[in-house]
Task: inverse folding
């Protein structure tokens, strides 16, 4: 393999990871706010179909992308309404939507099966694309891939470097505390779930109008992407940078499977395509095993030096979800919450005084 | 109490009507007559004895999967991996059949062994998700999903690799087994009374397990509050594992039925999505075993009824999936609404 083909292959990896990056960032925002949007797999398919259908009928690619985002936002709104307002199980609602949207996309999409439609073009960025290696890798992509690069850093900066991002972490970790600090937890959760949903919706047209242009119904090969993106979100520890890394790793592995195909002829191609899944289970295991009880017990029984080593190793891999993920927040009036805190402090004071009096 | 029941029924009726309304709107949006579509679906599932037999063929695995899922749901677990457990059941059944292909054992014994093998295969695959959950801290949803994809890949690998048809491997599956390996079918129909019986026995066992045994009570305690159950001295993680094993065995039986009574070979889409559909059924019946039979029959009828839609009306057969999903969604939303209004008053 020459260097040129290798570079083009790797640039392809960056491009084919772009849709997954959007999904992972969208899910990360939603879960950071405490809402698990499990509908992702169906949303992506419906947005891919809807985005393609709109772009095809209007002959306007931008409208196609907007339609995909709108579909994602609407599905997320249903998840938000059911889980935040009605306090139903997020897993149940999300799972039902995942199946329903998938079937809906197949049902509504049948007239668009296999029709050739518009496709996003590669736009090399003038000067930057002439840089030897990096130019081919990063600056000869299409618009949506550039957008994916941008969103990774935007999302990271928003969550970890702004005040609003801090509040976002707060409503996912300790909604009651954020509430006391003046955050409208319910509204914020709605907003972040819908924004996250719109990003997840962007994934659909990013496939059907760019990477895998067109709508092919059940053989689009998109069924399953949403579940992978969910796993990558966990792998990413709810951090856009680490999540994006997961998405690129996944795309790289898929590409590797294709490249290795001619070498490993006795392995059917379908098997290589699922190679990421055992790996996904393995990474989830590595990320989560630090949270298991028996590991803690085993660690505690180890001699000090080994214990420290393993504890460090586990901590480096471990990712803990936002503490209030999936937990409905029941808002009480601020006065009552504060009143409760005040009473508890007073009670503690009385107890202390009683102790002093005794001695 | 009676008013509660009545209110419950009212909300669910409203959900049913709403979901048919929404699906009608979807149908109108693609210039199809909803009335004609629903009539065709009904005729396609109950129109003749042959069609109803097809409904029962779909009903058998769906009921078995639902029965298994009731156990894991009682233990508070979301066993999405049930789809893969069906697949592994089918693979194990095929393996047993192939193992005894040239033996002199009576066919009845081989069939029994094959079904048993399928149940063990499903249970083992279920226990994998359970081990990941209990010892690895991996959420059963993600572990199960990953295992589902692995199971599908395994099927395709076997069909195109070690178990391929002599000559050329194809998506049509492995070589069909001889007729005596099939569960006895009703004359001229594809339904086996044995398979139907096994499915019904499965749901009855689960019903009594959950309603009438100490085991069921403890399982539900684990599901309701893991920590409290632990403090009460219930071996919690063992109970989680038991529920995975039982669900896996029942799902494996569903896979075994697909091989032994329907396809007589291993095909790539052997599970036909019954695992996921079973999850919908379990949610719709609100995890009550008593309702599993009628609702599973209804869902099976929708699936079979929609098969004719592409030919009769040029509509995609995924309409049944849309209807099933929308129905469950509205029932979930309706029960949420009901709880909300109950809290307010």
Result:
């Amino acid at each position: 393999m020459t260097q040129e083909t290798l570079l083009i292959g790797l640039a392809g990896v960056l491009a084919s990871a772009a849709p997954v990056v959007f999904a992972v960032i969208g899910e990360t925002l939603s879960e950071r706010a405490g809402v698990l949007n499990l509908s992702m797999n169906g949303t992506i398919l419906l947005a891919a179909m809807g985005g393609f259908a709109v772009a095809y009928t209007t002959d306007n690619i931008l409208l196609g992308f907007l339609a995909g985002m709108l579909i994602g936002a609407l599905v997320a709104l249903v998840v938000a309404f059911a889980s935040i307002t009605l306090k139903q199980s997020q897993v149940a609602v999300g799972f039902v939507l995942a199946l329903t949207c998938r079937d809906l996309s197949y049902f509504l999409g049948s007239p668009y099966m296999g029709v050739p439609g518009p496709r996003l073009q590669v736009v090399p960025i003038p000067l930057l694309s002439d840089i030897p290696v990096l130019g081919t890798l990063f600056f000869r992509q299409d618009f949506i891939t550039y957008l994916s690069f941008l969103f990774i850093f935007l999302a990271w900066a928003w969550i970890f470097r702004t005040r609003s991002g801090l509040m976002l972490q707060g409503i996912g970790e300790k909604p009651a505390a954020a509430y006391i600090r003046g955050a409208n937890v319910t509204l914020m959760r709605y907003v972040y779930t819908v924004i996250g949903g719109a990003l997840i919706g962007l994934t659909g047209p990013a496939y059907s109008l760019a990477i895998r242009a067109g709508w092919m119904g059940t053989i689009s090969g998109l069924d399953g992407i949403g579940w992978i993106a969910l796993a990558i979100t966990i792998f990413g520890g709810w951090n856009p940078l680490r999540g994006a890394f997961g998405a690129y790793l996944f795309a790289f592995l898929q590409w590797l499977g294709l490249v290795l195909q001619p070498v490993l002829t006795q392995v059917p191609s379908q098997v290589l395509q699922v190679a990421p899944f055992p790996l996904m289970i393995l990474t989830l295991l590595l990320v989560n095993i630090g949270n298991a009880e028996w590991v803690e017990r085993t660690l505690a029984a180890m001699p000090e030096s080994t214990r420290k080593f393993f504890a460090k190793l586990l901590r480096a891999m471990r990712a803990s979800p936002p503490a209030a993920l999936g937990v409905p927040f029941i808002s009480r009036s601020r006065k009552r919450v504060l009143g409760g805190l005040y009473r508890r402090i007073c009670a503690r004071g009385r107890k202390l005084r009683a102790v002093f009096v005794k001695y | 109490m009676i008013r509660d029941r009545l209110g419950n029924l009212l909300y669910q009726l409203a959900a049913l009507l709403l979901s048919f309304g929404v699906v009608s709107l979807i149908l109108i949006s693609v210039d199809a007559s909803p009335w004609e579509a629903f009539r065709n679906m009904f005729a396609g599932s109950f129109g003749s004895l042959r069609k109803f037999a097809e409904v029962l063929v779909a009903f058998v695995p769906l009921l078995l999967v639902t029965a298994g899922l009731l156990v894991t749901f009682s233990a508070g677990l979301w066993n999405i991996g049930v789809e893969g457990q069906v697949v592994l059941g089918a693979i194990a059944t095929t393996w047993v059949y192939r193992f005894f292909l040239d033996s002199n054992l009576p066919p009845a014994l081989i069939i029994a062994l094959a079904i048993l093998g399928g149940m063990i295969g499903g249970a083992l695959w279920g226990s994998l998700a359970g081990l990941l959950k209990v010892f690895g801290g991996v959420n059963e949803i993600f572990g199960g999903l990953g295992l589902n994809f692995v199971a599908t890949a395994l099927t395709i690998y076997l069909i195109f690799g070690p178990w391929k048809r002599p000559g050329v491997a194809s998506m049509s599956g492995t070589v069909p087994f001889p007729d005596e390996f099939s569960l006895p079918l009703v004359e001229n129909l594809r339904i086996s009374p044995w398979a139907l019986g096994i499915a019904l026995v499965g749901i009855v066992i689960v019903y009594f397990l959950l309603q009438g045994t100490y085991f069921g009570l403890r399982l539900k305690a684990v599901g309701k509050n893991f920590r409290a159950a632990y403090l009460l001295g219930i071996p919690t993680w063992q109970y989680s594992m038991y529920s995975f094993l039982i669900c896996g065995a029942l799902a494996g039986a569903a896979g075994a039925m697909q091989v032994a009574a329907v396809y007589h070979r291993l095909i790539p889409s052997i599970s036909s999505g019954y695992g996921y559909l079973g999850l919908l059924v379990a949610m719709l019946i609100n995890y009550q075993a008593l309702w599993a039979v009628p609702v599973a029959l209804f869902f099976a009828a929708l699936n079979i009824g929609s098969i004719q839609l592409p030919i009769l009306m040029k509509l995609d057969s995924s309409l049944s999936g849309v209807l099933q999903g929308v129905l469950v969604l509205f029932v979930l939303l309706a029960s949420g609404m009901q709880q909300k209004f109950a809290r307010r008053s």
Notes: The mean pLDDT of chain A is 85. The two ends of chain A are 84 Å apart (CA to CA). The beta strands of chain A are 122-124, 140-142.
